[in-house]
Structures are given as structure tokens and as C-alpha cells.
Amino acid sequence: MTGDKASPAGEDAPVITKREGGTTETSVTGFSTDMTEEKDRDTLIDPTEELERRASLVQHLARTYSVSAGAEDNPFVATEDSALNPTSPNFSSRAWAKALVNLVASSGASFRTAGVAFQNLNVYGYGRSTDYQKDVFNIWLSAVNFLTRITGQKKKRIDILRNFDGLVRKGEMLVVLGPPGSGCSTLLKTIAGETNGIYVDDVSYLNYQGITPEEMHSHHRGEAIYTAEVDVHFPMLSVGDTLTFASRARRPRTLPGSVQPNNFANHLRDVVMAMFGILHTVNTRVGNDFIRGVSGGERKRVTIAEAALSGAPLQCWDNSTRGLDSANAIEFCRTLRLQADMFDNSAVVSIYQAPQSAYDLFDIVLVLYEGRQIFFGPTAAARQYFIDLGFGYPLQATTPDFLTSMTSPQERIIRKGWEHRAPRTPDEFASSWKASVQYRELQAEIEEYKQAHPLGGADAEAFRASKRAQQARGQRAKSPYTLSYMQQIDLTMWRGWKRLIGDPSITLSSLFGNVIMGLIVSSVFYNLQPTTDSFFQRGSLLFFAMLLNAFSSILEVCLPSPAREKDRANDF
């Protein structure tokens, strides 16, 4: 070509030349690009300088992309359209969870895990032959019950769960199937430590991955939580404020990625809301049966999101899919599966009428029949176990429906030739389970788990150290709470202010009533003489002042105390 100059002999790098009129430039990389030059003569560029310039450019771009990649790997500083941004339409919960796990691992930390093994678990309660609702006419009957107690008459023991055995390792999901009244809720409450009104037999054995049940339910109360099927919230709070409180209450002392505390809590709230599809309700009241707010399905998802924000490694969900359609119920189970896979959380879930796609997400299944355990094992092996007992599998039936039908004499189908061998009563089902190969394998696994995680061993010490590292400075090591006392006061005052803004009627009516009553009472005792003759009137004035303050507290009866009890159980 005209104006081109060949490379010197023995040199591999081509010489770069420029030519007027948009001719070809041969670069050191061997590629050709068009360019326009105003010079009339060809100019020879030194290959060494060009290589240095390009090396500098490559280093600059490498630094730029490294910073961008680091920001993209940090879920708390994600770009607007990133898959890690919960407000983005491209948000991916799995990508966000994976990025969080990598971020925490890069700092040398890890997530706390907890499983549970229970052996010979017996739960019971006490009942009376008769009971009644006390009123002004029959209150004297309570004296009869008092006399029976002091005379030593024992209350009647009612067995709820009988000889249960099971094992849920970290990262596993257990689905509990059984009709209402079979003991599903009692089992979940026992595992989570919500044993108010029920009692665990002394011969029962529980092992929370090396932690005793006494320590787990006192010092680590918020690490094994129970979520009831009822939705209890402060109705006047918005969805965003409700979940912000939960997120801030369990905020760890050391935050990943050097993120600010409030930004961490708000981001975590948005992520959970995006996972459960309630991000659009952030400024909407939660409401209840009497106060208008979000819909019933959305309120159920608020309850689920609040429990998920606790970050508890062991979560018990009692029919939490009630009120949800099939799609949202499956999405709820998928979220639990994501937590189990990414964070090694353990979940125990009771579901009535579970879809097949939701059932397939679980690892193990427990079937209950009137307080008896009739199966515990892998979800894939449950159907064949009952078929081998002599029961037929109906066409187009789902596995969870087939397992639940075992507890109903009207629904289960006995195969031909098994009429006199298949179990029929709850005790016969329990006896068949005790004599099965699956039961012996479960006992061997429990014994192996007890050897691997002895009570009070190294796993318990690691759990305590991990929790202590997340607790605020100044907080007791044995305290179940994450925040310090002053931080808890600050957070509850923030929520109290939000509640006051959301519903100022009670406070304003109390102030207005006290002012009016104060004016009325003061007008009665106005201009008292400073003599001993006014002693009686002054005593009456003090009596009225105390009486008004006592009666004004009656308004506190309507305050939602169940919401506070739930927060206490979750260590919020």
C-alpha cells in the first residue's frame, strides 16, 4: 500500500502508520481501523510507546471494572437495574442470597445454623371434667375448684403427642401432615419452646445441634421461632414500618460491606417484601378485621415476611399458607427452600391441603394421626411406605393428599387381599411404624446425630460465640436480645411515635377528656380557703385525682397486647 512501511526484519510487532483520507491504521494488536487525518504526510509511531500506552489503558479499565464488579457483588450498593436491587424489575432473590453469602464469607463470618433431634417426645396437658365461663353469678363456684386443689385431687392428664421421634438437620425442611386436632400445632410449639399450657415429659429428649432445650428456649429464644396461623399486628402501622421494626430489632452489631445500620435494615426489609410480592404495600396500613388495610392474603405475607426477618436458624410455620392461593403458597415454600439452601436454615412447616409442587420442595415428611406418629422419612419414600402397608394409591391424587387420607377411614383405600392385615386405628398405625425398617434407620440416624452433636459440646460453644459477635456492646451474653437496652428503648419509642401518627384518636381523646374533667373538678374545688376547714374538701380532691387517673387506664384494655407477646417470642 502507498505510504506503508514494512516492519524491520526480525520484529514481530507491526509498525503503525497513518495516512490522509481515512486510510487504514494497522495497530499493534493486528486489527485495522479507519480514521481521518489532516496531515499530508505519513507519520511513524513508535511501537514501544504504543504498547506502554495500551498497557496503561488496560490497567485503568481493569481497575474500573473491578470496582464495578465489586459493587455488583455487594447487594447493598447494587445499581438501579441490577438483579440485586429489590426495587428493580430484574430482581432475583436467589442472586441476592448468593451475593449475601459470598459477602459474609469474604469477611470471615458465617450464618448460625441449628437443627433438632427429638426422641421419645411426649407432650401432655391437664383438663377438668367440667369448665364454665365465669360471671358475677357463678364466680363463687371457683371456691369448689380451690378446695379440690388443696385436698390433693389430681387433674386429669391428657396426652397430646405420644412417643415421637424425628431428626431435622441444618438446611433441611420438614413438612408435617395431619388433619386438624392431630397435634401438628403442638409439635411445632414444642420444638419452638412455646409450651404455655402444655408440658413435655421428663423422659423426652431434645437436641438442638448440641444445645439443650432449656438453653435454647431461654438464652436463645429468638433462634427457634413459632409462627402461628393467625395474623397479629399493630393495625395502624404501615407494612413498611412493621417490617422495619422487625429488621432493626435483629440488626447485628457487625454489618457486612460496611453498610450503614439504617440502610442495612431498610434494604433487608425491601428484599423480603420483594420476595413475597408486597413491595407495593410499603405505605399501606396493615389493618385487621375491623380496620381497613391490606388484603387478607397480603396480611398473611406480612406475617411471613416479619418472621423471615428474624433470621432464626430454626423456624416453625403453623399452617402459614392459610389464606394464600396456590401460587403464593408454592412461592412461600420456594422461599423457605432458598433460605435452607443458601443459609442452612431449618424449617418445620405444617400445611393442610399442600400442593404437589410445594410438597416436592421438602426433604422429609412427618404424618400424624390423633397424636400418634405413623411415618417419618424422606418425602420420596412416604407414598411407597403406605402402599406396602396395604393401601391403594388413587389415580390423579397428590402425594400429600394420599398421606393425609391415611388418617381418615372414609378416604383411605385398602388393596384387595389386605383387608385383615392393613392397620386401621391410630395405635395400629403407630405399631406398624415402630416395627418398620424406616423406624430403625431413623433411630440409627438420631444416635449418630447425638454422637456428632453432644449436648454442651463444641457446636454449642460455636453457636454462643456467633450470637455474641452479633449482639450489641453492653448486652448480656445470655440475653436473648440482639440490641442493647437503650437501643431497644429507642426502637420502641420510634414505633410508638409511628403508632401515634397512624392513630392519634386514643391519645387525643385521653388528653381532651383529662382537660375537660380537670376543669370540671377544679371548678368544684375552686378557691378553697387555706384553713383547717378545707381539709375534707382537699381530701376529696386528692381522691378524685387518683380516681380519674385509674379510670383513664381503662383505655389501655383495647391496646393490641398479642402483638407485643409475638414480638417478645421472636426477640423483637
Automatic annotation (TrEMBL):
Pfam families hit by this protein: ABC2_membrane, ABC_tran, ABC_trans_N
Region (Disordered): 1-42
Subcellular location: Membrane
Record CDD domains: ABCG_PDR_domain1
Superkingdom classification of source: Eukaryota
Compositionally biased intervals (Polar residues): 23-34
Membrane-crossing residue ranges in chain numbering: 505-528, 540-559
GO CC annotations on file: membrane
Topology versus the membrane: Multi-pass membrane protein
Gene3D superfamilies reported for this sequence: P-loop containing nucleotide triphosphate hydrolases
InterPro entries in the cross-refs: ABC2_TM, ABC_trans_N, ABC_transporter-like_ATP-bd, ABC_transporter-like_CS, ABCG_PDR_1, P-loop_NTPase
Single GO MF annotation: ABC-type transporter activity
Keyword terms of this UniProt record: Membrane, Transmembrane, Transmembrane helix, Transport
Domain ABC transporter, residue spans: 141-395
Cross-referenced PANTHER family: ATP-BINDING CASSETTE TRANSPORTER (PTHR19241)
Protein name: ABC transporter domain-containing protein
Source species of the chain: Fusarium oxysporum f. sp. radicis-cucumerinum
